[in-house]
Amino acid sequence: MTTLLALDTATEACSVALLHEGRALGRYAVIPRLHAQRVLPMVQELLDEAGIALSAVDAIAFGRGPGAFTGVRIAVGVVQGLAFALERPVLPISNLALLAQRAHREQGAEQVAAAIDARMDEVYWGCYRLEEGEMRLAGAEAVLPPEQVELPRMASGDWFGAGTGWAYAERMPIMPAARDAGLLPDAQDLLTLAGFAWLRGEGVPAEQAQPIYLRDKVATPKGAR
Q: Integer distance in angstroms from the first to the last C-alpha of the chain?
């Protein structure tokens, strides 16, 4: 059986999950600004609980953003370091997809409008629909003002609003059937999405473990054009 390690540090939550011999283990904590200190100890805790060495891992999944600039960079740095050392592939997964998958797991939602507070009076936005147990993107992910968010063309039925971006609900031109503005990504759902990606053969080399920011002006180095 495949052994997968998953970790996410893109938001206020820091989480790690491990799939080994069909059993999923996880750690989740909301610890702003402490991700760099806690993520590797959390990985070791799961390995110890499973009774395996890091070398038993077949691939490493991570939340590749969008999210906090520093948080996304922490995940990328940790994953690249581990994957290079182990010579293992990586599985980059969208943090908006993680939110949608968590909303499905906890709320049974089948259509999710995922939003993460992007600061600067904007939100990271993506709409997802359930297909064979996996929340899949409908349309494109974007960063935009709350007033400009929209559902996919021809959208119908109930939608669930998930994520911190829904703190701007009063400014959004959308009224979901229900919402949870406190929902954060969880590596448990990252593990689920990584499993689908792994079966499709979407693992990539460690050097391709790159972040997705959506807001290019934040990610562009000073002086670059």
A: 47
DSSP secondary structure string, 5-39? EEEE-SSSEEEEEEEETTEEEEEEEE-TT-HHHHH
Identify the residue whose tokens are 């893109």: 10
Task: Please state the φ and ψ torsions of residue 193, each to the nearest 5 degrees.
Answer: -65, -35
Is residue 181 within 8 A of residue 166, CB to CB? The reply is yes
Cα separation, 75 vs 37, whole angstroms = 12
Determine what percent of the chain falls in helix, strand and coil, rounding each to the nearest 5.
35, 25, 35
Residue 141's pLDDT is 97
The pLDDT of residue 107 is 97
C-alpha–C-alpha distance, residues 142 and 21, integer Å: 37
pLDDT < 70: residue spans in the chain: 216-225
What are the Cα distances from residue 73, in Å, to 17, 78, 94, 145, 177? 19, 9, 14, 24, 34
Helix 35-50, helix 69-86: angle, nearest 10: 40
How many CA atoms lie within 13 Å of 91's alpha carbon, on the beta-carbon side? 25
In terms of Cβ atoms closer than 10 Å to its own Cβ (0-12, 13-18, 19+), residue 2 is: middle
48 Cβ contact partners less than 8 Å away, ≥ 6 residues apart: none
